[in-house]
Amino acid sequence: MVETNNYAKFLGTAIDVWYLCKKEEMAWFLGLFFLMGICERPTTRHYWRSTEVHEYPIFRQAMSGKRFRAILKHFHAFSGLAIPEGNQDQLIRMHTVMYSSIFFREGVYVCGTGRLAKGAPRELQDISSARSLPDDGLEARRKGSVMVLLWKDKRIISMVSAFHSDTTVLKQCLHPLQEEHHQAYDFLEFQEHICHKLLAFQRKEWLASGHALQHAPDLPSVSNLLLGADVVRGKVDDEEALAKLLRWIMDRELSGCSLLLALDPSYLTTSLVNQLSSTHYFMQVVVIRDERDLLTPSWSSKLCRAYLFLLLGPQHLLSFADQHLQAWDYYGKYIIVGLSVADLKALSNTTKGRKTQHIVGLVKSGVSAGEFSVYVNQVYARQRVTFLSTWRRSHFTHTPTLFPDKISNLHGATLNVAAFEYPPGVIYDQHDGGQLSLYGREVEMIRTLSIACNFTVNFLEPPPGELWGARQPNGTWTGIAGMLGSGAADLAIASLFITSLKGRMDTQHYSSSFDQNVNCIMLRVPPPVPRWQAVLWPFTQYTWFALAVGLLLSGPLLYCMGRCSAQSLGHSSYLESMISSYLHAISMHLLEPVAREPNTNTSRVVAAFLWLYTMVLGMSYCSNLIAFLTVTRQPRTIDTFKDYQESDLSIVGLGPLFGDLMMGSTNDYIKELSKRYITVTSHPESWVTDGRAGYISNHKYLQFTVAKINSENRAPVVRITKECAWPFSLAVGLQSFSPLKPRIDEVINNIVQSGMLSYWFDESVRTASQRRRKPQRGTADGAEASDTGKVVALNTDHMQGAFYILALSYLFAILIFLAELIARRRKPHSRN
């Protein structure tokens, strides 16, 4: 410090460039200078950069780059005026630094490698050049406060230390800046961001010269700073072995994948990162200081993505793995360094870990240097992490497959499938012994998936009334959506629509679609029109009106023409009165012969055309009447949403889903119907059969229900409207980001292409109809044949119209008779 200030004064440096260097500042300078030899950068200015790759915060915290360069420019450790005449020591200027106890007096301790070929004592030069030193041989010398260590690997490496002793005591230090025995500018403490647990050292009495340096065995991990010759060599071996292992993985297993590097800040200065970055290109580099830093990467990609984590502890990753579920690549390949086996198990049990297919953990083995154990996660297995292989320096004990397909064969793992009875997908069958079995189109599909993926099915039913589920005010879901979101179910079936309505995609996802469907309304078939009205069906109301007008005009026309024509010829008319004329016209309309013939040409012409007119009418009526007598005529039905809105019927549905769809519809009639929507949880068919409301659901379900209900009755009881809405795709429900999805999609597509869904649907309808069919009731009079191919005999039901006419004629005759009696009794009074 003194010589540096004197040298700056000697040069006459301006005061705005140089100010006196203090003792503490010089200690910081020396610590930073030694650290530069360990953490190499292209230039001195790179140590003060804030970019992710080059960032080294301790440099900027210690002093500015401008001040460091100023001290470096004026740095002096020995005055040239103090060099004696005839000096032969070329390193005399460094004696103050190398062999003086100034470092201990000032509280600065140094450690580093040095060249002993020149300037060092002769004994050390002889040892450093000796070929007799065996491999892994170790020699140590001490002079005063300086320890020199020589160790031979491929060549002799010398280390000069001012704070190592023959007995080195190791302890873990979580807060190295509070350690009394070291200043913050100690180069070891500059590496606090490399090790989350540093080794602090207590200086002991120096032992006699020539004693070998003792080191602590079984150091906890490669993140600790290794001391002693064997330990230093072990650290180098571990880093080199880990670098080779990671390069092997990236070359063999991750070829063609884009790479993301996420690392603890401590790894930025290691040779491991330098080696990896020199041979492989990372699309992104993320420095993890807390879990929020993991939100910065882009976690979604259609390409192969691989993620390399270099960690010193599990805290940040474990915390991140249970939150921000969207920020994760569930189909990516993860290689994690720095976690223990227990940490890997904890990671595999997190929300993200359970749904990630490929996680590889590289754990340092304590057996020997350069040895790493490889562990992989297991999905849908009791043992979440399993040992795979061991890497020894440069090769595996047996070559593993790090990223196999873990979904195609689940090895009999039990998967929970949420379902409830919703034909034709899921149908319950209650056996005589009380045992419940399931069958149906979607049940058979799940069983096929279980065979293809080799898993065991365990059907679970949602709580009563919850069905597909609804969103609660606190944001949670009930029913199937809640079971998938909480992890209680792995799959779900029950005619699930692919929809994100009210945020369903936040808690559940879907497989590829296996069917497309629409939603319709099931209604009760109205009772047929009474058969006595069949006598009116051959003609429309306008035809009947024209026929009545023709009949009213025919009576007066016949009477007038016959009377006028007879008077002009001097004959008497064949129609004596208007009543006889009407009776004559009615006989002609009924195709009945008349008792008297016209006696004039005019009346004959009128009667002839009237006969032709009535013949056409009568024959047309008779032919149509026979057809209408044998056909049951239905009243006007509801076929569109407009018709339904004009009616006074309510509309019911299972759960609130359909009500929400109706409320959000752009169709005004459907939106108006949403005000009459009633949510039910069971037996919606009873509302329809009772005629109280219509039932809205998907067409396949209604088709099955109509077939079941109508098969139990002689005549159709329910039907489906012609107009439908909301086309949807049906799928199997999955947990969000489920690793099963790719394999499930593949198998479902094969099932759809095979046509098995149509077969399972027909079988479900047939089976349900056979198990629930009731004996058919006979007809009322036993006259109607059950075979529609035969000729149908007309029974009293068909001919009830004729009997009604007969009864009506009797009634009119009685009324007229009573009127005549009343009129006859009044005549004597009128005479008097």
Distance between the termini: 163 Å
Q: Outline the low-pLDDT stretches.
A: 98-108, 166-233, 774-789
Task: Please bin the fraction of helical residues.
Answer: 25-40%
Output the structural class. Answer: alpha/beta
Multimeric state of these chains? Answer: single chain
Overall number of strands: 26
Net shape? rod-shaped
Report strand %.
15-25%
**Rg, alpha carbons:** 51 Å
Biggest sheet, open or closed, and with what strands and sense? 10 strands, mixed
Arithmetic mean pLDDT:
76
In DSSP terms (H or I, runs of 4 or more residues), the helix count works out at 26
Explain what this protein looks like in three dimensions:
By secondary structure, the protein is an alpha/beta fold. Helices cover 37% and strands 18% of the residues. The strands form five sheets. Strands 15, 18, 19, 20, 21, 22, 23, 24, 25 and 26 form a ten-stranded mixed sheet that branches. An eight-stranded mixed sheet has the order 8-7-9-10-11-12-13-14. It has a four-stranded antiparallel sheet with strand order 1-4-3-2, with helices on one face. Helix 9 (229-252) packs parallel to helix 10, helix 14 crosses helix 24 (741-754) and helix 23 (699-711) runs parallel beside helix 25 (756-772). The relative contact order is 0.06.
